[in-house]
Every structure is written in structure tokens, then in C-alpha cells.
Specification:
Chain lengths: ~170, ~800
Amino acid sequence: MSEELHDVRLRVNGASYDLRVPARRLLSDALRHDLGLTGTHVGCEHGVCGACTVLLDGAPVRACLMLAVSAQDQEVTTVEGLGNADGSLSNVQQGFAECHGLQCGFCTPGFLTTITAGLRDNPTPTHEECRDMIAGNLCRCTGYQNIVKAVERAAELGLETPEDGS
Amino acid sequence: MTTKLMGQGVQRVEDQRFLRGQGRYVDDVAVDPATLHAAVLRSPHAHARIVDIDVDAVLDLEGVHAVWTHEDLTGPMAEPLPLLIPHPALTHGRTQYALARDEVNYAGEAVAFVVADDRYLAEDALDRIRVTYDVLAPVVGIDAARAADRLVHDDVPGNVGARMEQGTGDAQAAIAKAPHRLELDLTVERSACTPLEGRGTVARWDPDSNRMQVWTSTQSSTGVRAVVAVKLGLDLGQVDVITPDVGGGFGVKINHPWPEELLVPLAARTLGRTVKFTEDRREHFVSSAHERGQVQHIEVGFDDDGRLLGLDVEFWHDHGAYTPYGLIVPIITSTQLLGPYKPEVYRVVFESLYTNTVMVTPYRGAGRPQGCFAMERTMDAIAAYLGKDRAEVRATNFIQPDEFPYDQGLIFQDGRELEYDSGDYPASLEKIKALVGWDDFPAFQKEMAAVGRKVGIGLACYVEGTGVGPYEGAHVHIETTGKVKVATGLTTQGQGHATVFAQLVADELGVRFEDVEVVTGDTRRMPYAVGTFASRAAVMSGSAIHLAARRAKEKVLKIAADALEAAEEDLQIVDGVVSVKGSPGTALDLGTVSVLSNPLRYAFDEASKAATQFSVGDPGKPPVPEDEEPGLEGRDFYSPERATFASGMHAVIVETDPDTAEITILKYAVVHDCGRLINPMIVEGQIHGGVAQGVAGALYERMAYDENGQLQNASFMDFLMPYVTEVPDGIDIDHLETPSPLNPLGIKGAGEAGVIPSAAVFAAAIEDAERIPITAMPISPSELFHLRQEHTP
């Protein structure tokens, strides 16, 4: 017997998508496999690593702990939606590039979304606040040293060239 | 003149796609509703005989396409998986089957394989498979394996897979004669690589061209290719393996083939559909590989200065249920244990033991952290016994800079002599002492004690054999656009190969960095390769790429000299333009040289007109000169006589809470010598990551098996991988650059170093703070708390 499907309208990075998915379809799987937005990564499927973090109406959430049907009518922002309209890197992305804030890149999307929200809420973080901002995401490559620097650099860039905080 | 890029902290080219969410990891391949998804039924028992497997209920499920058990496998697929690295001492090597036959030997072993429309349905199907097991008592832990009351494999007496001994003389006699003697018993627990991306494989069988295409998250694409061909009965030429972006490896992905790396291609060919397997986190814990677990007994004899006169080491290595990777890990422990020191006589013997737990293959450091722990704990014990400074005892035992090459008189993991090529250990020691404030620490410790605070300092030294053979190769192709396409066969898991290799090509060829594009781990582009392990990528592929670029350059100069009617030695290549020195007007760009290198009959654009038969060439000569090939390419291989030996020293200052026994890192310092640096920014990144993994292994991570062989902490909730809050806030790094004489660039490997001395350095610092011997790692606050109670009179 086939599974019951549900209609859901997902708004992702400003575009609308109509999907028919089973109730149990995770938001992370819907983004990756149904919409082909594979920038959101899945590292643990139990909400600990933070690689799948997306912004839901601007707030960081674990896409692996949420069902796609429950994202109806909410604005989802994934890593693919973080760059500037002209195709250039956002300040957070630029900070990572300049500070060697990533190695294998698998956890990076979750850090980028988390920090994007963090700097929006606190554009001038102290060093301790930069560390706190990323304290819910796991990275196995960098030892976090350069991610902290990247947050500090992104904040600096934000003061030089403030971005539209959408 | 272009600035040399060797030694520059060039920003990484790969980051542009990663930062935009455009990386392509294996689960990002074949995102298509037509792709089928696999799931694996795994043994819930650590040790059991399989009585019966009933899959009848599975095929009724809508969306399920096929199910395999061992009974369904034929030919080579039904045979055990390969034993990748045989060794004469491995007298009782055993490997698992792609799907268990008759018996399971660890909780997590693959039993059945289901392919369905999506992963959800495939997992539903697993729930319907009924397996009847006859459960056996498992062997868990080194003590149980040594006791051998029960056997993992009925035909392996004593659970001993291998016993191996090496030495330089009669260590026991040397110890007996020594003025002072000590014995130590040490333990290191299991841990694991734990990359953020687990294992994954996608396969597509193309019936039109009779070809198998496999994408897999591996550290050896050529290894996977060879075994897929053998196991599926295909010619090597029918199989392509492409390693996409890999979300971390740290060693675990060098093992191959995983059962799924064979079952996915088998399913793809059988079903005529693209099939994907992506493991979840729990599967990674219970069905990939672990490392580190060892018990060690050390006997040492030394003189009044602490000089090692005799060193006799015996250790027991837990290799889990199977031995696909041979004895590499314990051989490395037994040889690299010596570090920068030169005991007068050394003997080591180890037993590699079976247990009913996940198998053991190399994890970053690969046996070195355990060896370093053994040796450095011994150094600290000698210093304590003699009442000497710990740094001084080490310095007394160093191999001196004028003693290189230094032959340790043992055989290393690559079957070659353990001969160190270069190093400067006294200089490193001076640097690390200055960096951490070694000489000032006793005053600080006293000051802290006066206010009721406990602080301690630790020091640990290591030597790492990097860049082992047999070889790597490279292909450099200058296209008619002037762009340079580079391929090397080993794979990339975040080391920034696309950047560092492009730096080398830009320097050697005289082209712009932006014009160089590097591909790794694609067997279509470079079918001869070994893999990424043993900190070998920069040394092996870096050297091969440098040599291949030189070959391409030689060809450029030959053709350009002809075309410009100049002598080769008068030419220079700057920013992709060949010109006559001192006469910049007489020049050709590399794209044009590429056009000239390939005589054409047919023009396809403006540039190619210049290479057609009525435009170029001496009608009296063959269009392609004898001993030449068309195209502007260079290909070369690098195969060194032996490994090159990097080294380093770490120091840490910790504080232990007098009430809670919480361990806090106050300062972490690293001195690192990996020869000439290609990109210091990337090397420091590697060190940062290694140190964090070292902190993890010393203070947090372990595999908590219970007596039934069940892994109790197989999730990120319970396996304590450090967040930023657990790692040092800042790591002080100083470099020493002692070039290797073994390769053209003078480089040594850097990837694993950061993790090697961690268990040793933290044990030393905690011991210094607590004045309690620390003999087992990792150590948690509660363990330290209990140690305090045991040592309170």
C-alpha cells in the first residue's frame, strides 16, 4: 500500500516550490533530494552536528529535525541563498574564504547559516561571543580556530559594507 | 616577474564552490527521482551464527526492487573481501564477506542489502527481514581477547591474528646491565576518525557502452576501481571510479572495498538503474572502522643522565573482528614509537588480537599516537625517577642534526628500512620551550598553588614517516586556450590539493595560478595512483606534479624555440607567455604553443587554422617529430626510495579543578617541521584540525562497548566530539623547515602530525598538575576524580 502524500508549498531562497511528499519526509531530504538544493548537508540526522542548519524565517533550525510538511508557508534560507544578488560572496562567506575557515567543506553550510543569523542579531560580537555563536556546530577538520577568525572577519566586513539583512 | 607561489598562503580555489553550497559530495550525485536507494540490514549481535534469513515479506512492499543476502551472491562476490596488505607475520588474517555468511562477528556487520525507490522505503523493508541467530558469547576488549576463554574465529587459536617482533639487539640484557630500570603499563582506548560525511557510493551501469561508473567517498579511487572490476568480473577498462568532494576521511576511507562499494555496483548492473547508498551516523559508528585500542608493557634501562640503554616494549593491539588492512597500525606503533630518540638497544613485540567489535584500520596518526604515548610516558617516568627536567632527558636522547641519515635498524610500514632523512630535534626543543614558556612554568605553578589552583605542563615529541610509496603520478595538459589542466590520481578530503598543486604548477610552468585547474581521484584522468594516506599527498603527488609540469615545460620550450627561432636557454615563460629574454616582443602565448604542438588537418576555429597542414611544418619532415607525441602534455611519476620523516613537538599547560576535576587547557603550543612549506596557511589548518582531534582523543572520545559487544555511544549525543568550547582558544605554532633530500621540493607530509602527541602531552600535563601517574588515556573528569580518591592516603 502506498504512502499518503501531502501537498506542501515550500518557499526557499525566495522561490516557491509545490511538492507532494509523505508526512515523514524530512525537510533536509526534501531540500536535497526533491528540490536538488544539495548545499544543505546531513551529518548526523539527530540534530547534534548542525551541518543541516537552515534559516526558517531567519532563525537557525536543524533541517534534519523538521518535517517538510511543517515548513509550509515559512521562508527557508539555505546556503545557496546566502550570497549577494550580484553573485559575490556574502560577508560571512568572504570571511571564511579569507581566513581558511573550511577544509572539507561538509559542515560549512551549517556554520554559514548559523553565523549569518548570529551576526544579524549581534553585528559587533566580542571574541567570546564569536566562539559562542558557533558552539552548536561540529567541525572535524579545522579545530574551529579559523572559523572563529572568520566570524570576526565577517563582522569587520559587515561594518565596512553592511548588507541588506534579509 | 611572477612571484613564486611556493611558500605563500594562497587562498583556496575550492572554497568558492563550497561556500556557495555547490560542492558535490557523493550524496549530491544522481539527485534524480529515478535513482534507487539502498539500505543495509546489520547484525544486532556481536557474535552469532546465522541460522536462517527470511526475506519473503520484503518483496511485497511497493517500491522495493531487490534484496540480497549472501546466498544470492555468486563468484568472486561470494568470496571474502580482500586482505589489502598481506604480511608474513599475519598468520591468521581474516576478512568479512560483503554480506555475512553463516556467522557475524560484530554488531553492525552487513547481513542483507535492500534496494528501493527511496531510503525510507528501503529501511521499511529492513524491518521485514527475519533473521534467526544462534547467539554466541562475544570477545570484547583486549583482556578478554588475551584470556582467550572464547574465540572470535574458531580457527584462530588464542584470538591472535599476528605476532611480530623486531629489534636491534638483546634489549633485556642491556636493561639488566643498566644502572637504573623502570617498568610501565599503559592503556589507550578505542576512538575513530568520524568524518562529518560518512561513507557513500553511487553506481551507474551503462548498457550502451558496457561500462560501470562509480562515485564513492574514498581515499583510494584506483583501489576501489580494481576491486570492483575483480569482484564483478569486469575488465579494468570497463570501470571508472570518480571521487567527488569528500566530507572528511582521516583514514577510515582508505579501507576498501566496503561491502556497499561492491553491492551498489552489483545492484546497478543487475537492476539497470542508478543506485545510491549513503550511510547514516549510527551506521558509521557500528560498521566502518575504529582505531587506537592498545595495552602496552614497557621495560627500560637507563644511565644517570637518562640515556636509554635498553628499551623493551610489548603491546597488544585490538584489531577488531577482521584484518582487511593487515598489520599497518601496530607496525607503525612499533617503529614510530622511537620518535626522535636513539636507544642503544630496542626490541618490540606485539600481538594483534581479534575481538567481536568493529574492525580497526588507520585513523589519522595510524598507531603513532599510541607509540608516542609509550615513549613519552617513558621519558617522563625516567625524568621523575632521576629528578631531572623532562626536556633535558629528552635532549640527552635526541638523534643529532649531524647524524642524518639515521638508520633505526628496523623495517617500517612500507617494507623499507626505517631511515630518517633529515631533522633538527634540538632546535625544535628550543623553539617549543620558548613558545610554551617551559623555563618560567615552575614559578607560575608555585604561584597558582599558593592560591589553591592546580596547573601542569606537558611536553611530547614525535617523528612521523610521511610520503610512503609506492608512487603517485601526474598529468599536465596545456590546452589551446592556454589553460592548464592537471590530474593526479590520489584523492582529496579537504586538504586543499586543488590549491597547493596549482601553486606548484604555476611556479614550475610560469603560468598564472588562476589558469591551473587540478582534478584528483578520477580514474578517467589518471588511472595509475595509490591513495591518500600516511601524510603522503603533498610529498607524492606534489613531487609528481612538479615533475610532470617540468616535462610539459620542456616541450613548450622546444616548440617555442623552433617557432621563435631562438635557443631554448634564451627563453622564459612568465604569466603564460614564452618570450626571448631581453626581447619581450618576440613572444608566443602558451595557447599558441599548444596549437603548434598538435598538427591538424581540420581547423575548427581561428586558433586552430594556424596548425593545419598548409600553414605549418617543414614538408621535408614528419609533422610530428620522431620520439614526440602530438599535444602539449607532460606526464611523470614520483616513486621514492623510502619515506621522508617529519617531526614536531607539542606542549600544553592545563588546569585541573580541585573539586570537580574538570580539565581546562590554558595554553597549547606546537613546533612543526614538515620540510619546505607549500602553503603555510593550509599547513596550519591541518595542525589546528589535528590538535582538535588530539584533544578529542585525549579528553573526550572513546568507544563505549559493553560486555555484550554493543556500542553504547553510537551517536553524536553520546560520543563526545568537541565543539569549539572544548578546543584551545588559540594554538601557538612555530615552524622549522628542514628540507627533505628525498624529493625535488624538499617537502615532508603534514596531515597527520597534529594528532600524534596529544595523548602523551595531556597525560604529562595532568600528571604534573596532580602528581598522580597517568597511565590510561583518554581521561575524563570523573576518571581523574576517582584517581584522586585512589591516591588519597
